[in-house]
Amino acid sequence: MDAGYHRLVAFNAHLLSAGDSYRSAGIAVYVMNLLRGLAALDGDLRYQVLLGDRRLSPTDFDLPVRFSRVSTGHPATRILWEQVVLPGLLRRLGADVLHAAAFVGPLLSSCPQVITVHDLSFLRHPEFFRRGNRLYLGTFTGIACRRAAAVIAVSQFTAREVQQLLGVPAARVHTIYHGLDPRFRPLPPAEVATFRQKMQLPDRFVLYLGTLEPRKNLTQLVRAFARLRDPDVHLVLAGGRGWLYEEIFAEVERLDLGARVHFPGFVPAESQALWYNAAEAFTYISHYEGFGFPVAEALACGVPTLAAATTSLPEAGGDGVLWVDPGTDAVTAETAIADSLHRLLTDAPLRAELRQRGLAHAARFTWAETARQTEALYRHVLEAKKGQS
Description:
By secondary structure, the protein is α/β, with parallel strands linked by helices. The protein has two domains: 3-179 and 366-388, Rossmann fold, CATH 3.40.50.2000; 189-362, Glycogen Phosphorylase B (Rossmann fold, 3-Layer(aba) Sandwich). The protein has 14 helices and 13 strands. The strands form two sheets. Strands 3-2-1-4-5-6-7 form a seven-stranded parallel beta sheet, with helices on both faces. A six-stranded parallel beta sheet has the order 10-9-8-11-12-13, sandwiched between helices. Helix 5 links the parallel strand 6 and strand 7. The model has no long low-confidence stretch (mean pLDDT 90).
């Protein structure tokens, strides 16, 4: 048997959750699809997926799994498991490398680690986070990444942030983009019409899809939407409630927009493409993103998109997006967003051009390529380990 078959990659997937909440978005999408992509590769590495939520099934990604004895759904329990239990488990498994898929790995483990950093918003914008989250990530991410054998950054922007803010040498930072699920595509009009009727959606609406949290800049979006003078256009803010979201609802009430701004709540993965396809336009004016999943997903569905020209979003959207600067003074920014939304909704040639450009740009993001590059990085780390032994 080839020696490669003895090399074991342990994958910490404890952030995966089977529940319908914001925990099933963002990083969880990355973890689940990367695992499926790794399972599809015809390589000689072995994998052990470490899980904490027993509602998940090994058939979700067709790799060997190991559940912890206790549920790690609560953040404090998960952190304790990662730092205290995981090092011993890695020794017992004989793991050759650990992939910590979300910022931090066990600090006291001698096992070489690959750590994925999705963004460093907790350092750039600590005001958007609860104190506990901010302290934990702010304290441990830098230590873990500087000790890691390799760091995966999900965009070139995030790679620069890791080098500048965490002090990780450029040689150990590797940009590997997210992929997109093939379900994100233009859908048959009849299927979309049935969905619109089932959900009783407005005839015309602008969609936001993502977690409701301060970093997404939704309060400013609501104020900009209030400047649109077309009463037939609605705004749908879809996604699970994250943290510090109360101001969004308060602003809708203050501006008396309750009849035109809708909150459908968490959107399951299987219906996300239908939401994109049903929208007349998509908007994402987040303050800070490590990659910007929803922008690329909207483009893949052929939806004209308005987004903030900030951080990593130009990488996610390329030339298929109408860009806006939300960083000027509040009134100027809200006017610019409102004017851009109006143009996106009314300029038919622009909409057609953005659709074609967006579809072409989104096609570059595939989970198969994400998995291929990630496995190549595992091999790079393993070869470096072999050379040191």
